[in-house]
From TrEMBL:
<feature type="binding site">
    <location>
        <position position="151"/>
    </location>
    <ligand>
        <name>substrate</name>
    </ligand>
</feature>
<protein>
    <recommendedName>
        <fullName>Malate dehydrogenase</fullName>
        <ecNumber>1.1.1.37</ecNumber>
    </recommendedName>
</protein>
<comment type="function">
    <text>Catalyzes the reversible oxidation of malate to oxaloacetate.</text>
</comment>
<feature type="binding site">
    <location>
        <position position="82"/>
    </location>
    <ligand>
        <name>substrate</name>
    </ligand>
</feature>
<feature type="active site" description="Proton acceptor">
    <location>
        <position position="175"/>
    </location>
</feature>
<dbReference type="InterPro" id="IPR001236">
    <property type="entry name" value="Lactate/malate_DH_N"/>
</dbReference>
<dbReference type="GO" id="GO:0006099">
    <property type="term" value="P:tricarboxylic acid cycle"/>
</dbReference>
<keyword id="KW-0816">Tricarboxylic acid cycle</keyword>
<dbReference type="GO" id="GO:0030060">
    <property type="term" value="F:L-malate dehydrogenase (NAD+) activity"/>
</dbReference>
<dbReference type="InterPro" id="IPR015955">
    <property type="entry name" value="Lactate_DH/Glyco_Ohase_4_C"/>
</dbReference>
<feature type="binding site">
    <location>
        <position position="32"/>
    </location>
    <ligand>
        <name>NAD(+)</name>
    </ligand>
</feature>
<keyword id="KW-0520">NAD</keyword>
<dbReference type="Pfam" id="PF02866">
    <property type="entry name" value="Ldh_1_C"/>
</dbReference>
<comment type="similarity">
    <text>Belongs to the LDH/MDH superfamily. MDH type 3 family.</text>
</comment>
<feature type="binding site">
    <location>
        <position position="88"/>
    </location>
    <ligand>
        <name>substrate</name>
    </ligand>
</feature>
<feature type="binding site">
    <location>
        <position position="95"/>
    </location>
    <ligand>
        <name>NAD(+)</name>
    </ligand>
</feature>
<keyword id="KW-0560">Oxidoreductase</keyword>
């Protein structure tokens, strides 16, 4: 297996570190446009491997796509992160060209690759990558819901004072401060509804904290988060390369599922070696479906903005 991570900044390097530690591939390429950075980080990682006991071959590449040749999975993190006070959507003007250019160059070397899109605004970048590359829909996966769900579990576990490992909780919808939908009704603690343990006010606060989880970290850090995003990316790569058939909420192209068409947005999907393999219908209630439709409208408006900048 060969995995490439494009963008060796905060998220890309953290994803690469997690991928190497988990030994998800024999060869891992880190590509960036910044001279020397990828070679330096690859060497630093390789030296850390001697301490951690894993044997992944790590290669740094300054914009040399020939080194990415034959990649099975490519994680695209290249682009600009937001600053405090900004929304993810404000990044569209800069990141659209970067993501489109990278996706096309990657496919010249790795025509069979599965692409994992991370750059923001992620749902729109996923849609853009799909339209630009014309790849089969199952090979383009936007990473957002897995991270938002991790934050949802974190806030639930904190409120309940229990292990997050005992919780099942999923966020669907757009990966935006106002568009994501933490599915509180369906969240469980060892198969029992979390509403057995938390009152409505607390559950509403958990959902609200989850939705602004990324913004809260951006305010604290001065740039957006990287540890959980990097771990989330590696978890997704793991599900692909190990053909895990794991249910992970991801942004994928809908064709009537959840009442929407021609849009990439977060829904629960089964991930395996061919990419996302099927969409699972959670049977939303009326209120959840109304929120999903509203979220889809916002993502669709963002997609429409691509025409103005492209
Ligand atoms: N989907 C998610 O859940 C999620 C989570 C965290 C961050 N993000 C997004 O991921 C992106 C990266 O965030 P970050 O914190 O790693 O930023 P960063 O600035 O630390 O790293 C971005 C890297 O991309 C590189 N880059 C820019 N243009 C490139 C190109 N054409 N080819 C190759 N590399 C290029 C830059 O040189 C830089 O090293 C941002 O858009 C951020 O909003 C998304
Ligand atoms: O918040 C951001 O802008 C980055 C990312 O989408 C996140 O959720 O951490």
């Amino acid at each position: 297996m060969k995995v490439t991570v494009v963008g060796a900044g905060a998220v890309g390097a953290t994803a690469a570190d997690n991928i190497a530690r988990k030994e998800l591939c024999e060869e891992l390429v880190l590509l960036d446009i910044k001279d020397g950075i990828t070679e330096g980080k690859a060497m630093d990682f390789a030296q850390s491997q001697t301490l951690l006991g894993s044997d992944t071959k790590i290669i740094g590449s300054t914009n040399d796509y020939s080194k990415t040749k034959g990649s099975n999975v490519v994680v695209i993190t290249s682009g600009v992160p937001r600053k405090p006070g900004m929304s993810r959507e404000e990044l569209i003007g800069i990141n659209a060209d970067i993501v489109e250019g990278v996706a096309l160059k990657i496919l010249e070397e790795s025509p069979e690759a599965i692409l994992v899109i991370i750059s923001n605004p992620m749902d729109t970048m996923t849609y853009l990558a799909l339209k630009a590359t014309k790849l089969p829909k199952n090979r383009i996966i936007g990473m957002g819901g897995i991270l938002d769900s991790a934050r949802f579990k974190y806030f639930l576990s904190t409120a309940m004072n229990v292990s997050a490992q005992d919780l099942q909780a999923v966020v669907i919808g757009g990966h935006g401060d106002t568009t994501m939908i933490p599915l509180t009704r369906l969240a469980t603690y060892n198969s029992t509804p979390v509403s057995n343990y938390l009152d409505e006010e607390t559950l509403n606060k958990v959902a609200a904290d989850t939705m602004v989880g990324g913004a809260t970290l951006t305010k604290l850090l001065g740039t957006s988060a990287w540890y959980a995003p990097g771990a989330a990316a590696a978890t997704l790569v793991e599900a692909i390369v190990r053909d895990e058939k794991k249910l992970i909420p991801c942004s994928v192209l809908l064709d009537g599922e959840y009442g929407q068409k021609d849009i990439c947005i977060g829904v629960p999907v089964v991930i395996g070696k061919t990419g996302w393999e099927k969409i699972i219908d959670f049977k939303l209630n009326e209120d959840e479906q109304a929120k999903f439709n509203k979220s889809a409208d916002a993502v669709r408006n963002m997609n429409a903005a691509l025409n103005k900048i492209g």
